[in-house]
Amino acid sequence: MLTSAPKGTKDILPDEIYKWYYVEEKFREMAERFGFREIRIPVFEHTELFQRGVGDTTDIVQKEMYTFNDKAGRSLTLRPEGTAGVVRSYIQNGMSSWPQPVKLFYNITAYRYENVQKGRYREFHQFGAELFGAADPGADAEIISFLHLYFMELGIKNLKLNINSIGCPACREKYNRILKDFLRTKLDRLCETCRDRFNRNPMRILDCKVETCQNELTDVPALLDYICDDCREHFEKLKEKLAIMEIPYSVDKRIVRGLDYYTRTVFEFVSENIGSQGTVCGGGRYDGLVEACGGNPTPGIGFALGVERLLLEMESQNIEIPKPEGPDIFIGYIGEKAQRLAEIITLKLRAAGIRCEKDIMGRSVKAQMKYANKINARFVVILGDDEVESGKAELKNMATGETKDVHIDTIVDRLLKYKQGNKNE
Ligand code: ATP
Ligand code: MG
């Protein structure tokens, strides 16, 4: 117990963190290009926020939340997603009086008590964005084009964009009756959860992951065929905009998404590789959410992207993420005087922005060289009594094997020039 992390959690070790930096930096940079600004929200919120904001009838709220009482008896929950917290912050901070639309992005951990498997964990990471204040399909198109461009610049090819419209509450009321008529004769073949959903929120059944339930749904009537004229026009305009921007998509009448307050547009980017955990990113419009959480009626649309699934997808497509290089230079030494000189030079190099390593293990010169090799140092200098006396040393380029006699005073400048040259290449 003591020496293993809780089920469903993972360390991200130094040898793989560069992959995370890479997708995070690209995401931040892309968000900024699209005019989104970062928001950081708390890891826990009042449990009620998620009951309201994610929805009482969702799997997340019914089965997957980490809920606890604090010492004052408040019920708190670790965030299972980001949207509810961002909506809470939007209301609390009066963002409706900011210049509209309000465009926010985030990079968070999220917590769900899930069946752990590849691409499904109990602590995981999401990138997300939310756009408040714009009901126009132009906002939907902007959110989708953001993701399209992000995946394109990462070099990801196999992601398929599926879109659907689940209409407004009025369309859904009509549809729920039709759906219940269809399901009534199949009830005893559905799973227990779905039988419960039948009364509470029948549309959730469409999202059930149990195979026998999915088998019963092959001829299910699609909500898209029943949405009202306004919702249809909204959807048609979105499709037009995607076509103009040459963003390929398919209409998938089966997408309903896991969350309760979605209206109109819903979409997913689905991998052809990962299998049942293939949804890398999901999102949609939630025009009723801000009001449901206690704010003024405010249209909104957003998405959340699973970072673990994104990295799995990149791996399965053999997309290379540039590996970080080793230190620029290793300063070795033998003897006390040389050690002092090495300490001074090391600090000077580091102050100049150069990645520099030096022995602090009391190792022999031979062992220091071995270590310099292991950590992939680009240059190596070894200092001894002779070097201290003459002020000169041999600078070895480990990649080419080339050596040069240099004045020790010039090492900082040489390394700086070398790095500059590399950047200009
Ligand atoms: P799924 O249908 O796979 O359970 P979801 O509909 O519950 O996904 P969302 O709540 O929409 O997922 O979250 C958005 C994204 O976050 C998902 O598309 C996925 O990439 C990622 N995600 C969700 N749950 C997990 C998890 N338990 N582990 C890792 N990533 C997850
Ligand atoms: Mg889920």
Automatic annotation (TrEMBL):
CDD domains named among the record's database cross-references = HisRS-like_core (cd00773), HisRS_anticodon (cd00859)
* E.C. numbers: 6.1.1.21
One Pfam family it belongs to: tRNA-synt_His
One annotated GO molecular function? transferase activity
> Which residues are involved in binding L-histidine?
E81, G82, T83, R112, Q126, E130, R257, Y261, Y262
Q: Superkingdom of this entry's organism?
A: Bacteria
How does this protein assemble? Homodimer.
Protein's UniProt name: Histidine--tRNA ligase
Species this protein is from: Thermoclostridium stercorarium (strain ATCC 35414 / DSM 8532 / NCIMB 11754) (Clostridium stercorarium)
